[in-house]
Design a protein that fits this description.
Blueprint lengths: L3 E5 L5 H10 L3 E5 L3 H8 L10 H10 L3 E4 L7 E4 L5 E2 L6 E2 L2 H10 L8 E4 L7 H11 L8 E4 L9 H7 L2 E5 L2 H12 L6 E5 H31 L4 H8 L22 H8 L5 H32 L4 E5 L14 H11 L3 E5 L10 E2 L2 H4 L5 E4 L4 H4 L1 H9 L3 E2 L6
Helix pairs in contact: 1-3, 4-5, 8-10, 8-11, 10-11, 11-12
The structure holds nicotinamide-adenine-dinucleotide.
Length: about 400
């Protein structure tokens, strides 16, 4: 059944979802408070970097199935995909669902009986119920709606494929809401669509990201232990993973992004007494970035002792993971900024962005012409090309992301 869908928040999750739904023939209205993003989308272009998304958006806008605006309109289905950050500061960062609540208030005047209201933003347990409370406070009869939580699991860089292929969890506020909303997703998802209740689906998403954070913390802890003992952690992990029941993730410069580095705090904040492992994992992963800064400073001291001058430090990669332009919560960015704040001359190579407000961004080609202290922070494909890898090796690049393995 073709429907009118209103997608609120047109970022990495909302825009691909809107474009995919439009490609399936739904009439999609995308809403974002960012006027520039709205204008870009209405011109058939995109404001974020994501493979294949541009073709989907261009086709959807050209066919008249997708249009964007800065305020919502009536629809059959409302999907909320706005950010869910945390409040900075304090030993345990607290979830901030203000934007979800704001987005809910913005759709409230347009919601009618029989509508589906779906929250996709990664949210602390209880948020879907709060969405219903907000709608009720606007006089909406929520018993007449199908309200559900449906977390997103896509991998940036593969969003258009994973939106279709991944299994999805749908947690309704009622079993009927789960069923009706799951039916909607089955219209465009090839993976299984699994029905549960809202709180279980909310916890499920937080659990997935916390699982990865804990596993990476294990790898990061191991990397520091191995470094002290002169052992190659990448080899250790590759060999250990040949055990049929061992699957250790890869260490890196820390853990970033607005999911894995954020969502575990939502669990910790909800139950600090019991969430000890999850909290420690967050702390280990944050500490790893500080450890990297210390290692670079030690190398800079060695450079000074050997050459009598301070090195220029060239940070290779700023994004929170390979081959994307997303710098949110990026440990690589934090490391580069921290080194700069400590008085070092820092340059950055980030092939996925053109410039940065606080850092001198140079091209890889210009970077490798220099005599400098090279620090590999992100495994971008440009750094892995055999000839480039050889150049970086010859320059003694410090590798914190396994680019030379
Ligand atoms: N990006 C991912 O890979 C990913 C994966 C899984 C889950 N998530 C979750 O999905 C949610 C959205 O993440 P994202 O990466 O798309 O964020 P994003 O920052 O890329 O996009 C969010 C968009 O919402 C807009 N916005 C903010 N307030 C708004 C409002 N009141 N009304 C309308 N638009 C508003 C912003 O302008 C922005 O364009 C978050 O909860 C995130 O944790 C993201």
């Amino acid at each position: 059944m073709k429907r009118k869908v209103c997608v609120v928040g047109l970022g990495y999750i909302g825009l691909p979802t809107a474009a995919l739904l439009a490609s399936k023939g739904h009439q999609v209205m995308g809403v974002d408070i960012n006027r520039k993003a709205v204008d870009t989308i209405n011109s058939g272009q995109i404001h974020i970097v994501e493979p294949d998304l541009d073709a989907f958006v261009q086709a959807a806008v050209a066919h008249g199935n997708l249009r964007a605006d800065t305020s919502p309109t009536s629809a059959d289905v409302f999907i909320i995909a706005v950010p869910t950050p945390f409040h900075e500061g304090g030993a345990i960062p607290q979830p901030n669902i203000d934007i979800v609540m704001e987005a809910t208030r913005s759709i409230a005047p347009f919601v009618k009986p029989g509508n589906l209201v779906i929250l996709e933003s990664t949210s602390p347990v209880g948020t879907t119920r709060q969405v219903a409370d907000i709608l009720r406070s606007f006089g909406v009869d929520t018993d007449q709606l199908f309200i559900a939580y449906c977390p997103e699991r896509v991998l940036p860089g593969k969003i258009m494929t994973e939106l279709v292929e991944n299994d999805r969890v749908v947690g309704g506020l009622t079993p009927e809401a789960s069923r009706i909303v799951a039916e909607f997703y089955r219209g465009f998802v090839r993976g299984d669509v699994l029905e549960t209740e809202a709180a279980c689906a909310e916890m499920c998403k937080l659990t997935e990201n916390s699982f990865r954070d804990v596993n990476i913390a294990f790898a990061n802890e191991l990397s520091m232990i191995c470094d002290k003992q002169g052992i190659d952690v990448w080899k250790v992990i590759a060999l250990a993973n040949r055990h049929p029941r061992v699957n250790i993730l890869q260490p890196g410069a820390g853990v970033g992004g607005h999911c894995i580095a954020v969502d575990p705090w939502f669990i910790v904040a909800s139950d600090p007494d019991n969430a000890r492992l999850i909290r420690t994992a967050r702390e280990v992963n944050n500490h790893k970035s500080e450890w990297v800064v210390d290692k670079v400073r030690t190398a800079a001291q060695g450079w000074r002792a050997a050459r009598g001058s301070e090195p220029t430090i060239i940070c290779l990669g700023l994004a929170f993971k390979p081959d994307i332009d997303d710098l949110r919560e990026s440990p690589a960015l934090e490391i580069a900024l921290d080194l700069k704040s400590k008085g070092y001359a820092v340059q950055a190579v980030e092939p996925n962005i053109e410039n940065h407000a606080s850092l001198d961004v140079v091209t890889l080609e210009d970077a490798v012409k220099q005599e400098a202290l090279f620090v590999l922070l992100v495994k971008h494909r440009q750094f892995l090309r055999p000839e480039m890898a050889a150049v970086l090796r010859s320059k003694g690049a410090l590798d914190f992301c396994g680019a030379s393995n």
